[in-house]
Amino acid sequence: MDGMLSQEEINALLGGADTGSGAEDVSSANSEVMLTPEESDALGEIANISMGTAATTLSVLVNNRVDITTPTVTYTTMEELAERQETPCVFIYISYRVGLEGKNMLILNERDVKIITDLMMGGDGTNLDAELGELHLSAICEAMNQMMGSASTSMSSMINEMVDISPPTATRVDFGEEFPDEFKNLIDQTFVQVSFKMEVGDLVDSQIMQLYPMEFARRVYEQFRGSAMGADAAPEESSAPPAPEPAPAPAPQPQMTAPQPEMQPQMAAPQMNMGAQQQPMAGMQPMYAMPPQDINIQPAQFQSFMPVQNLNGIAPENIDLIMDVPLEVTVELGRTSKSIKEILDFSPGTIIELDKLAGEPVDVLVNGKFVAKGEVVVIEESFGIRVTEIIKD
Q1: What pTM value is reported for the model?
Q2: What are phi and psi of 197, to 5 degrees?
Q3: Is 144 exposed, middle or buried (0-12, 13-18, 19+ CB in 10 A)?
Q4: DSSP letters of 344-376?
Q5: Which of 69, 105, 188, 319 could hold 315 in an S-S bridge, CB 3.0 to 4.6 Å?
């Protein structure tokens, strides 16, 4: 029948209507595939925190600002990805080996991978002519290893358990060609797709996706939920009274309330009679001690400092105490300024012109301070300096 729907198709479209066993089969299949709203929200929050930490790591690697937006959680299959993905992409496999057991996949566009790897290798992110090869895949694996390593640290704090990953592996996938062998067993599988918008400076404005197998997504949620429930239960256990042991002990109460009338006059005693000697009650330490009245208190007296005599440049005799302190004497032939490019061009035989003229006195510095001028002399086989002028402040 041209243009006519079959009864099974009508039942599938109606969904919630009471159309017999066919509708029940569809709803039960969806319940097995779909996550609950709580599971979906938790997985999105975990991915949001983890990828936020990973973005910080990536910004250091590429020396550019990296922004990753709040994720959206949907569902997809390999066939749907093949229909949506127009250009070749790179699949990066992340295997969790400690804390969590399972795998997920990161999907990046081929162009984004080239930009990121070019930035990592010191380029400006515009070298996109070369074909995607082993160098690009190795570089993006290293970037993802560090990114997902930092994301695992964040995940560890959320589930209160150490999380570690194996080194990632990367594969170039072109859905326009024949389906890769490693994906043939995943064609019928439904994945949880967590999508982020990623911006790297002004070079990348694209989408990055994480694919979670349904079983692994639920496992992540269960560990996150178990950790949250354990954290909520811990304060209740610690705050619960251990037993009614403190209640049937009324004996300390009269001892705590009886001394109060006597403590108040004691605190007011310094105002009424400053000379009275305060006596602490038996079994208690005095709250403060009143100074005895017969203490002789006098102002401090110091001898006057003798002025240092000016002996026409001759230091006082106490300078003998530091006569053996070594000082660094430097003779500066001259100075000049060069750019980094000019310095990198230095080679044996390069002549550097200084700011001193031939025959001009050189500078003598002591611990970096300019103190004298002199001329260069030769003493046997060594250079020396003859001081010609002392510089006075």
Answers
A1: 0.50
A2: -90, 125
A3: buried
A4: HT--TT-----SSPTTPPEEEEETTEEEEEEEE
A5: 319
